[in-house]
Amino acid sequence: MTIDEVALRGRAADLGKRSIKNDAKRQGIAMAMSMVDLTTLEGADTPGRVRRLCRRAISPGAGLPPVAAVCVYPRLVPVARREVDGTPVRVCAVASGFPAGQVPLGIKLEDTKAAVEDGAEEIDIVIARGSLLAGDLERVHDEIAALAEAAGPACLKVILETGELGSFDQIANAAWVACRAGADFVKTSTGKVSINSTPATALCLLHVVRDYAAKTGRIVGVKCAGGIRSSKEALHYLVLVNETLGPSWLVQSRFRIGASSLVDDLVRQMCKMQTGRYVGFDDVVRD
Fold this sequence. Notes:
Elements: H1 5-15, H2 22-34, E1 36-39, H3 47-58, E2 69-72, H4 77-84, E3 90-94, H5 105-117, E4 122-126, H6 129-133, H7 137-151, E5 155-159, H8 168-181, E6 185-187, H9 199-216, E7 221-225, H10 231-245, E8 255-259, H11 262-275
Parallel strand pairs: 1-2, 1-8, 2-3, 3-4, 4-5, 5-6, 6-7, 7-8
Helix pairs in contact: 1-9, 2-10, 2-11, 3-4, 5-7, 7-8, 8-9, 9-10
């Protein structure tokens, strides 16, 4: 698969210049909030921190809707499951040796199965990108397929770690392999490397899932993660989705934003539209 990098970057940049104001901005902020996977993936995560995250996910503030999901490490899935029970917020677990993925397949499978058994409704896995970069696409495909089977009914989001793949051709090839292997979403990044999601990589993935749907009839969503912190950035991504795939894709079942601090700015921007002034960061409830 060959990607015109110059055209892709230019198109992504041009779409970032769209001005979104008034009611359209309010709708966009609410829409973006509903697509957030609110994430905490730190070594110091505790049950208390996850409970606070879940409460924030359910009631972000400023009249905004709950987020799509909370994303945590597998051992904290039961804590999150209890906290969000009875709400529309889903529980997502990172599995398969996140973030590097450099563990044997058997361990990845057990990690995935355990997270689902503990109540995870969504699983984010990382591809064997060393195998991908070595050209062993069959191994990458077969591992994703095995993990898709292990995940069972859970939504499987496959992290490509686009910042480490070197080119848009490689990113597109990785996404296509993931789609063929049974991914429900292709995801840009772990958020644990120096280059995470960018508008251009998001646009590349949107083109892949568009072409895959046209060829096979199966819908695969896109999740952008890592470094998306402001409402302006989130709205840019929504414009990319709308202009590439149309308004029917502006739903959480087809597009997600993985973030930890974005929720704060979405609330601040909505408060600004409601009251005419910005609340300070100290006025936004955070962990």
